[in-house]
Every structure is written in structure tokens, then in C-alpha cells.
């Protein structure tokens, strides 16, 4: 990521910090739902603490993690805006019936808000855990976003090739779950990592990466051209005349394996 992109990212973080501070100010001014507002304030302050630590992370972060920062922080902006709205609605009601109706609705709004903010806290903690050793990653089970980004991170920079292959297989499994958020995150952040894995000198890695890419292409029809272009280019380079016979055989086997694993892939059917 270029210095200009990093500058834009830092500006985004600054905007998020200011937005979070506005939420805290609104909480302090609120005269209703004191307990709920207090719980909200603790969550927002926790997020602000981590947001303030991220700018120094950007100076040394790998490009991959900058993508995940953008994905997570943009979602946090929506959550802070919802928090502003919920706190704004915490106004005393004069009429009794309106009071009870409003009380129930606002209480429900708070619970829904707590749920999404807790997910944001988990996602931010995952980011922080990569540059602050004393911070503990709470694991991916609490947030779909963290689950996907953890897999992508392993595909990109896992400690061993076997770990990267296993993570690619996990991404393929997530694509098949038909979850829109999973697919969007994998396409935005995982595509370069899967293509990188496809170029490793390992038939097993080729199969794992190609399978995930084909499944993603089949689910994302509008973006399938981009995926298949990269996939075909990589395979074609191994089928070139300058490639060794072993490389050509591996590429041919890969094409056959792709066809066998993904018979539903429309682009492959057209090429048969």
C-alpha cells in the first residue's frame, strides 16, 4: 500500500476516533437509560483505545493487514452512527403509553447495538493482537469477519505451506456456506493470497487454491471473469513450451482436477 493510501487510512482512523468521541459526549449528556448508556460507553471507550493505537501499526504493517484494517474500520463507522441514533432517542417521554412503548423499543435497540459492538471489539482485538504481543486474540468463533480474515492471513503468510493449504481449504468451505459477508471478504482480501498460493511449486497447493478460486468464481458471477483470468493465466504459464514436462503435466492434472471438483462452474462447462 502506497504512502498516499496509508495517509488516507490514517485520516479514516482519525474520523472514527472523532465519531466515537461524539458518541461518548452524547452518552454523557443523556439523562435516560443510565445503565444502558454506561454499558455502551464502556464498549465505545474500549474501541477508541484500540483505534488510537492503530496509526502506529500502519507504519509497519504488511499490505494484507491494511486491507483488513479498512474492512473492519468501515464497518465500525456504521456501528458508531447507530450508537449515535440510539443515544439520541434516549429522551424522557411524557405520556405514559408512549413511555412504555419507547422504553421497550429503545431497550431492544441497545441489545442489538451491544451485539454488533461486541463483534467490532473482537475484530479490533484481532488486529491489535498482531502487533501487541501482550494482547490476546479472542479467537474467530465470535465474529465471521475475524474468521475469514484469520484464514486469509494464514493463506498469505502462514508459518508453513501445509498451514496455508489448510487455510485455503477452509476458505473454500466458507464460500460454500452461501454467506454473503464471507464471499465479499474473501473476494476483497483473499483473492490475491489464493493466487499467490496457486503459484507455489506444489501440486497440493495448486489444487487447494484453484478449488477455492473456482468456487468463488461460481458464486460471484459478476467477478468470475477476474478470478478465472488469473487462474487461466497461471495454468497457461505452466503449459508453455518453456515449461518442464513435469510442470506441464502438473498443469494438465490441475485442469482435470478443477473440472472434476467443480462440474457446476459455468465457465468450465463452456470450455469443454
From TrEMBL:
It comes from Gossypium raimondii. One of its GO terms (biological process) is cell surface receptor signaling pathway. SUPFAM superfamilies: ARM repeat. Residues 11-130 form the DUF7792 domain. This is DUF7792 domain-containing protein. InterPro entries: Adaptor_Cbl_N_dom_sf, ARM-like, ARM-type_fold, DUF7792.
Amino acid at each position: 500500500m502506497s504512502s498516499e493510501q496509508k495517509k488516507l487510512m490514517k485520516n479514516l482512523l482519525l474520523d472514527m476516533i472523532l465519531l466515537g468521541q461524539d458518541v461518548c459526549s452524547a452518552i454523557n449528556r443523556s439523562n435516560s437509560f443510565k445503565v444502558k448508556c454506561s454499558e455502551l460507553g464502556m464498549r465505545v471507550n474500549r474501541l477508541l483505545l484500540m483505534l488510537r493505537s492503530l496509526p502506529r501499526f500502519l507504519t509497519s504493517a504488511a499490505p494484507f493487514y491494511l486491507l483488513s484494517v479498512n474492512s473492519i474500520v468501515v464497518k465500525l463507522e456504521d456501528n458508531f452512527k447507530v450508537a449515535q441514533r440510539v443515544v439520541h432517542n434516549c429522551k424522557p417521554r411524557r405520556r405514559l403509553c408512549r413511555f412504555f412503548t419507547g422504553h421497550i423499543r429503545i431497550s431492544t435497540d441497545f441489545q442489538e447495538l451491544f451485539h454488533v459492538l461486541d463483534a467490532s471489539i473482537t475484530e479490533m482485538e484481532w488486529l491489535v493482537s498482531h502487533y501487541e504481543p501482550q494482547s490476546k486474540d479472542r479467537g474467530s468463533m465470535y465474529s465471521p469477519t475475524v474468521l475469514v480474515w484469520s484464514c486469509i492471513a494464514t493463506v498469505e503468510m502462514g508459518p508453513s505451506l501445509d498451514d496455508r493449504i489448510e487455510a485455503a481449504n477452509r476458505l473454500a468451505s466458507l464460500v460454500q456456506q452461501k454467506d454473503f459477508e464471507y464471499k465479499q471478504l474473501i473476494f476483497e482480501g483473499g483473492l490475491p493470497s489464493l493466487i499467490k498460493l496457486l503459484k507455489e511449486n506444489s501440486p497440493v497447493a495448486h489444487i487447494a487454491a484453484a478449488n477455492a478460486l473456482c468456487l468463488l468464481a461460481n458464486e460471484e458471477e459478476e467477478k468470475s471473469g477476474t478470478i478465472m483470468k488469473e487462474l487461466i493465466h497461471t495454468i497457461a504459464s505452466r503449459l508453455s513450451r518453456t515449461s518442464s514436462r513435469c510442470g506441464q503435466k502438473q498443469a494438465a492434472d490441475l485442469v482435470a482436477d478443477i473440472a472434476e471438483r467443480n462440474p457446476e462452474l459455468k465457465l468450465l462447462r463452456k470450455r469443454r
